[in-house]
Amino acid sequence: MTGPHEEDSGGLVMRPANSDAILPTPPPPLPQSKLTTAGDKAMEEADGRKVLTSPYLAEACCSRLLNQFSGRLGLFVAGRPRNYAFRANRNAIMETVSHLGYRVLDYSSLRENLQLQLDNGDLEKTEAAATETEAAATEAAATEAAAEAAAASLASKISSLPETTLSLVFLKPQKLDWNCLGNCLIFEPYHQPSLFASDKWNMARILSRKAGQSGLKFFDASGAEFNYRRFTMYTANPGLGGRQQLIRHLDANPGVYVLKRTNSSQGIGIHMYRAQQPNSIDLLQRCIGQKARLQRYVLQKYIERPLLVDKRKFDLRVYLLVLSCSCPGRPGDRGYFAFCHPGYVKVSSRAYAGDSRDPRVHFTNQWVQRRGGRQYECVKEATTWLPDELDAYLERRRRNGNGPAVPEGWCRQKLYRQVAAIAGYLAWSCRPYLASRRPGCVFRIYGPDLIVDEDLRVSLLEFNCFPCYAKNTMALSTSLGSMWREAVAIATEASLRYRDGLPVAAPTTARNFCQVFSSQNPAVLGKLISSCFP
């Protein structure tokens, strides 16, 4: 039985809409919404849900927030509407903004009107310019002046609001001083320290150093200390020191390794290396090309026995919402919170074969799968699943006795709880790099990728600072739209709660996100780890 993905010359055909091998038939009932006051439900009560993700009903989920914080929401400003994250998810973001009652300020029109006024005032000066260079300089000066005037106007509007009011800014406009945003919630995707943490080699070093430090510790169900070794693979930088130690490790541990660029994405610069004696740095250099610099690569152990679905390799993309909060009345007090969303499942378009040289067999991201050309267009819907499709597939195969040997309810009760615990551990370990010191409340969204092997061990593949928001499949469109609607609502509620001195726990607007770290209560992460790691 091959399920809905029938093999055809090594490829796939589009799964039928009424397939019962992946899609639940009939679909499971939606869970009860978690619309309760903060703290009314403990985290473990979510385990009884019948599905891992459900459509985010923004209107219903925002209504309780409006009742609790009536009249507390101010302006919504899209400071840079051309930003990729905002442009790709504009409809979902604006839907939640509308239901929350933010007053939308068209910053682009404000700036354009000021630009027009300045252009009219400088028209004679531009026409009288002796050269094209002078005319261009005059035009640039007018544009600069318009940006400054628009920023000053926005700062005035924000400062005129009561101090208890929270405004939402999607990317700080140019020329606007951060100190004017003390009463704002800001989405800031570009953050230099987090770029450092997303570097694959830097992440390995951060996790290693954190495990060796004294302070807060976490323990699994058996009482053993939990650290990064439970969810990472062997990682080394062949271009830095310790080369002889690396060669000894490769000689003692033969098998397949992956050479990746430390800071690349989209499957660019990935090479497979089979370690077999005698190994040498020259062989690694030859693998990536003589002109490439080894110190810009990491060597990572490849999972040679991955858990397969429909004979194909898969990994998990989850979303990590990180929120840094400050309060104008408490300048030295900063809160740090992290929430994890189940995201979606990335599936290869080709049947798995360990000795295959086809990158579409080994790497599941959409940029690699799209290299299949016309074949990809025929099967692209099968390359992304929702978490509940994965759960239904494994459960059906378990009952039929012809699938992976997973326990009953493994996806809901173990897999995604372990994924959430790992995401929380990353948020805790990388706090110096992910937290913001800016005035106001700042949130960002990251995209960790994780993989599962045949022994049901979950491993971190990489930590993406700028996750892709392309919606070229139904699962991507569903997952991303729901995630962004919920992320805006949760960030708003958590910011208001923190500013009022309330606990940021069990947000009333949460449905698919779960809290994985809280600076107010670090035991949240400890409890999550001990509940899902034996």
UniProtKB/TrEMBL annotation:
Region annotation (Disordered) maps to: 1-39
| Pfam families linked to this entry | TTL
The protein here is known as: TTL domain-containing protein
- Fetch the Gene3D superfamilies from UniProt: ATP-grasp fold, B domain (3.30.470.20)
Q: Which organism is it from?
A: Macrostomum lignano
Molecular-function GO term, any one: protein-glycine ligase activity, elongating
